[in-house]
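User: Predict the structure for this protein chain, please.
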Amino acid sequence: MSRHLRWAAALLGVLLLAPVVGTPPVAGADNVSNGLSYTVVPDVRAGTSPQGPGEWTVNYERLAGGDPAVTDAINRILDDEANGQVWLFAASASKSSPWTFNTQGRLQFRPMTISELWQGQYNAVELPNMPVDTVATRVFDSRSGIQIVWSNLFVDEQAGLTRLGELTKQILPATYPTPPLGGWGEYYAGWAPIERNFRFWIPSDTGIQMYFPEGQFGREVRTITIPWEAVKDLIDPVFAPITS
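Assistant: Here is the predicted structure, written as structure tokens:
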């Protein structure tokens, strides 16, 4: 076992765009990144689907203030993500059962990153195995506004994905002692070193907070923390401050 592993223990409906009324922007001491203070501005995408008995509400947070170029770059991607979630769930939703999709995005600020975590639920009330919990993330470099993904965070993306897979295989069962139906061995494909298995994450003080959507490892969203020490040797020096 390596020393690194040891660290492990046409849209279906008319999209209605509406601002959040009566909710003031939020500014606080915690909304600081790269030495600049930002204001959190709530926004929403909400609508109904005439081709299916469904409705959706995507609440999320945008930025104001700070570095204008960074703010604009991040907000464009946050808007795209909010609209994309509508497309994803409206297009694949039931055409017979009444359904709802509701999610909430929250911004998180660290010294060199600004991230947003969306957590929600899709519910087609007349279908089995409902509701389904949902998750999505975006991570940005607050120095430039670019999105941080595995291909730029790691010097070698495949080496990084391989490390994430090895660590997930160890940390996930330790975090969830009760295995999903069929046992962890039934879900080995979920920690294979490919990008789609590790697409939802945010940086935290202690490491990479991974989120695995419902279905990847059983009937719930699962989350683990991969310690920075276990992956920092693979991180591009440009992004080394992400670990502090």
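The first strand starts at residue 14 and ends at 17.
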